[in-house]
Amino acid sequence: MSPAHPVDLYVLIMEMLESELGCYATLQYESRSPGPISDRPNPFTNNKVDLGFMSAASYMKLRKNKAEYVELLPVTPVFAHQMNVENKPGYFSDIIIHRDKIAHNVNTLLDLRGCTFAYSDGGSLSGLKIVLKTLKEKGENASFFGSHLKSGSHLASAQMVLTKQADCAAVDSTTLLYSKKFMQDGGKDIVTLETLGRLPPYAIVVNSRLPDNLKKAMTEVFLTVPCDLYYKRQFAKYGLIKFETNSDGAYDGEAAQMWSIQDEKLTVPYY
Length: 271
Prior knowledge:
The protein has eight helices and ten strands.
């Protein structure tokens, strides 16, 4: 499982773990959801998965539901972004528009009133919830946009803006960074209007049944091996700078409040 990031990144991580831990692994890639699919048995509880990469929102949902045998590994990837000058854990939400919108005096989020907004899914922190939170802080509500399109993924949201099916979208900054080079003309017609965040770190989750010494060894591999020149170069292709320590505290406080924002009725005030 993984967020909407390239599968090749997770192949590289798997190969690194196999090499350093002297084990064999099989990669299961779930492109339909940034975490366990809600209407299916939890793969950690069913003992089908040992290690999982997922969005912060997906982990927070598992934690709230007290999913059995789900344990946060105390480490998280750190990705490059123009706002992440200190190279800290966490990521951002980029509000994007088509370049043509600039000619219509669209310069800030508040200039998008009445526009068609695309978002990945209702549970996404970067795709929707931080936008609702920001609108509330600016005295607006969920009826700010003229219409909403649920795209199914951050990449699909970006493509909707590129092809003008949507006027704007909020997308995971890491997904946008890597995927633009594969879009038409390198995605040059996509412009980042504003950046929101920082959002909680991506979660790396382990099956709590694993031996403690193995969990500790995996953590040490993540924190040390990517510093090796070979892996540093390989991870740089995906904008991944390093791995840093992580803890459950990163998903409390403001993060938990944002995650609790409901989206069932986007056309009416949600507060």
